[in-house]
User: Which sequence fits this backbone?
């Protein structure tokens, strides 16, 4: 029996993480889209341009491929990758020195040119770190990198049938680490004890859809509903809210594919702004605003607006809670009012044949948008859209940038870069 660790209780609200036990560390990016799940940081001064002679504080070679976005807790930068054919979680300090590296199990490599066996990002509550991989491995570690437990979801509950490389990241509730598995076959949402990895509950989440419509690479978000934790899951043409205590569906919203289009797979995740979930879908052709809450089927009552002229297929939008910043796959950018769906402003990055596979971040009023060919583009959003700079990193960029402490962490195909003054 593993000795229980002292838990640092985290309560996730719609907009922010609040820490009950002690202050949040200054360097804090605990999950894929950051502390507010919106991919934004309001404060800070971040460089807009850099080169090999100025602005790159350090550049560190990684053991192997991986597309996961790094996370940060205080003095540790944590990411996943392949190392010696093993699914691996590793941590570096803020000088780029390796602190620890922990193998989880044999890896299953990527299929897509912009994919890997290590697409999902880790998540941490300050005491534990959790990693999830294309192989099906789900692992719990201490913040110091000691492996506490591991399980393989595909061996236990069925093989992965996604056409491409698994991408959904785990999320945390007060007591559990949670994973959504959405593909053809048995789809489900499951919760595991943080300390032991024991299954707490598992609920099926199966919907009949046209071909590939039941595949999803999106990451859930944990919110509060009526004072209790709820897990919001997007995929299989449904947005569902689940009671975090037992997985029971609280409400669901459908109607995302009335014409029954084939291959309308969910790749981009959604964002929450105020009381609205803003969801890109339809392979980049649709955008919808769903009011959170209610009971049962809320498809007719809580779908507030739908756009059929915009959206994003792969990049997940950003939000500061007041507006949604949408990066489309070919570089168009829009500011969207989450309450009405109306366009507040628009612009675009320079035209290029390469696409945007990584999700952007907004930091200090600037949007940082990695393009698949290795160029990271920057625009000011302080007064609409103003293109500022492009920075060639010299290798493919699929992971999202991480803005922490006036510095940018940029994960490339082979290296991790730290950008700052």
Assistant:
């Amino acid at each position: 029996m593993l000795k229980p660790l002292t838990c640092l209780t985290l309560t996730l609200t719609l907009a922010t993480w609040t820490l009950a036990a002690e202050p949040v560390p200054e360097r804090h990016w605990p999950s894929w889209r950051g502390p507010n799940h919106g991919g934004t940081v309001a404060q800070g001064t971040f460089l807009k341009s850099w080169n090999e002679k100025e602005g790159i504080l350090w550049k560190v070679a990684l053991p192997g491929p991986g597309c996961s976005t790094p996370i940060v807790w205080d003095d540790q930068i944590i990411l996943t990758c392949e190392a010696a054919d093993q699914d691996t979680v590793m941590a570096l300090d803020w000088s780029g020195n390796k602190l620890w590296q922990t193998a989880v199990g044999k890896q299953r490599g990527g299929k897509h040119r912009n994919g890997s066996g290590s697409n999902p990002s880790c998540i941490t509550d300050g005491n534990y770190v959790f990693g999830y991989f294309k192989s099906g491995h789900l692992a719990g570690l201490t913040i110091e990198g000691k492996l506490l437990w591991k399980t393989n979801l595909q061996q236990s509950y069925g093989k992965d049938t996604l056409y491409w490389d698994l991408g959904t990241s785990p999320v945390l509730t007060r007591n559990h680490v949670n994973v959504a598995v959405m593909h053809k076959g048995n789809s489900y949402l499951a919760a595991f004890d943080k300390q032991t990895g024991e299954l707490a509950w598992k609920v099926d989440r199966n919907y009949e859809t046209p071909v590939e419509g039941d595949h999803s690479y999106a990451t859930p978000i944990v919110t509060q509903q009526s004072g209790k934790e709820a897990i919001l899951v997007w995929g299989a043409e449904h947005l569902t809210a689940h009671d975090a205590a037992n997985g029971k569906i609280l409400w669901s919203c459908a109607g995302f594919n009335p014409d029954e289009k084939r291959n309308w797979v969910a790749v981009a995740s959604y964002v929450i702004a105020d009381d609205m979930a803003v969801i890109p879908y339809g392979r980049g052709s649709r955008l919808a605003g769903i009011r959170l809450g209610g009971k049962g089927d809320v498809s007719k009552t809580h779908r507030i607006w739908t756009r059929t002229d915009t959206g994003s297929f792969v990049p997940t939008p950003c939000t500061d809670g007041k507006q949604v910043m949408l990066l489309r796959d070919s570089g168009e950018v829009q500011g969207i009012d989450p309450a009405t769906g109306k366009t507040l402003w628009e612009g675009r990055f320079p035209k290029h044949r390469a696409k945007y596979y990584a999700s952007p971040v907004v930091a200090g009023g600037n949007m940082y948008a990695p393009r698949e060919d290795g160029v990271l583009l920057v625009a000011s959003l302080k007064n609409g859209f103003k293109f500022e700079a492009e920075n060639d990193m010299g290798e493919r960029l699929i992971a999202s940038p991480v803005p922490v402490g006036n510095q940018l962490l940029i994960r490339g195909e082979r290296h991790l870069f730290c950008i700052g003054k």
